[in-house]
Amino acid sequence: xxTKPSASLAPAEVGNDPRDVTGTDLLFRLEGVSRTYxxxxxFFRRHHVDALRxxxxxxxxxxxxxxxxxxGSGKSTLGRIVARLIRASSxxxxxxxxxxxxxxxxxxxxxxxxxxxxxxxxxxxLNPRMRVGAALAEPLRVWKVVDGRKIDQEVARxxxxxxxxxxxxxxxxxxxSGGERQRVAIARAxxxxxxxxxxxxxxSALDVASAAEILNLLLDLHAxxxxxxxxxxxxxxxARVLADRIAVMQHGxxxxxxPAADILGQATHPYTRELLEAELHLPSSQT
Length: 287
Ligand code: ADP
Ligand code: MG
Description:
four-stranded antiparallel sheet; globular; binds adenosine-5'-diphosphate
């Protein structure tokens, strides 16, 4: 369980797996990852929640892996563990030969620079009192991404990459539409030039048209920047647009995983079928 994955093992394994449709390069390996949350202890209530139960998962460089499951199935917990916003209670998270759980100090800062995160609510990543330009300049300065004199130029480039007009630099987040706000949040997440983007319900709060635009933007960025994307959604419609592979989660476990077309077309697990049927009954979630 605790031996780190060897570089030579991963590609051979991928090549031998006929279901694999993505790359050959193992980026993350999760081994028996569990996460328990302590809750208010009282005589009648449980003292903890098992949010993740011994999850094994490989994530390949350059793929879009979409986590699908109902609310409470453990998607955010998994995303937060990969982004190392929280730690696993047990198990290992390998990023190459780095044990993510044990990162501290400078190494942890470096890791966070390489893994961007976007949330459902852009206000979770955007300070309402900070203008768009300042919000994008801040991470550039903190991470020393570019020379101080080139920050404005880099802000302009970031705005361009998410199709936000340049004059928005002076606007506050509240003066943006939901979709625009999410674009700025994505630009901020990309400021450190991460290799990985964790997008947790990134389109769930948006109207259908804006959601489709953001999904397409994520697809473009993924292709352009060769980003590895871990996308969590309760909406199968979004997974249809943005997924190379889909992992279906239920009660803190991955119950089914495979290429998106297989999962959406010929799901074998009863819970996945249930999700698919529920989707068909909701016209608004069809794409
Ligand atoms: P999802 O993103 O799929 O909705 P989460 O990972 O947010 O699922 O939650 C998984 C389980 O863990 C749920 O039962 C949820 O109530 C619980 N949980 C999540 N975060 C916390 C927390 N900070 N404290 C206590 N319980 C939590
Ligand atoms: Mg969630």
